[in-house]
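Budget justification note: compute hours in this period were largely spent on complex prediction jobs such as the one shown. Inputs:
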Amino acid sequence: MEPTRTGSATLVDLLDRVLDKGLILNADLIISLAGVPLIAVSLRAAIASIETMAKYGMMRELIQDVSREKIH
Amino acid sequence: MKLYLYGVIEGVHQQALEIKGIGGNPVFTVPCAEISAVVQECKEPYSAEDTQLMTEWILVHQAVIDLAWEKFETVIPFSFDTIIIAKDGRSAMENLQEWLVKESTSLQEKLKTLKGKAEYGVQISWDPQLVAPRIIKNDAEIQRLQEETCQKSPGTAYLLKQKLENLLRLRLEIAADVYFKECYQKIRASVEALQVGKTRKEEPPRQMLANFSCLASKVDIAKLGKELEKITQIEGLFVRFTGPWPPYSFVS
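Corresponding output:
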């Protein structure tokens, strides 16, 4: 079995990592992110519906646009 | 001006990366004390109620970390919206550099241990309706209750049916626990590190049994793939295998 990074389901997997994980800096150096956990909750719910939408190709365009942004 | 921090990489690098960061801002590296930070300038945290915009920002965050990972081999990724501020008369850049100096040794050690490795997501789900027949087939008590239900009057049969459903639910819970433990042990043996995450809601009738984050060598990932292949052979069990991701779950 091969790992994949494509497909709508991986978006939720990615979201979990980018929003909840990764190194966290010493709090006195960074902006207080009090609002972010709330955003994460609502975004996760929205992404779940995006996942459903993506099955019908509605998110494909957005994801492709973002990929294109990688190159100047 | 504040600095949005994407990640920390090995070595001394002072360069612009060929990628647009969040909001189209240039991304560049800041070297200090044998390591470098991947950053962009920003004014405010990136937070919006517009889901599409937030998703786009998150994808850009990931794209920048991906590029740094590809270009510099190893990266310590930071959470979305990690923003360094100016404080006590010191600029954001000075604060960043001071932090890099202070944490350099531990970050270098972390980078060394992560070299050549990646994170993989493994989610194991099941469809209890597909597993139930197997459980019933091997459970004498359930079979006895089923036979009894057929022979009794409608009232008694109804009560027995409820009893049967409760018993099957209990057996399925036990089976879920057994599958979790078996999968954990098999997967744990084929990766370097494993973290158990919260299970997510799946589209019914599927239910997620396990949500693992695995740290494994990128070149040796076939070993994990083989174990997962075996799990998919079990009737009613499904595996989602994602990655390679930068090691988000293994940097704290």
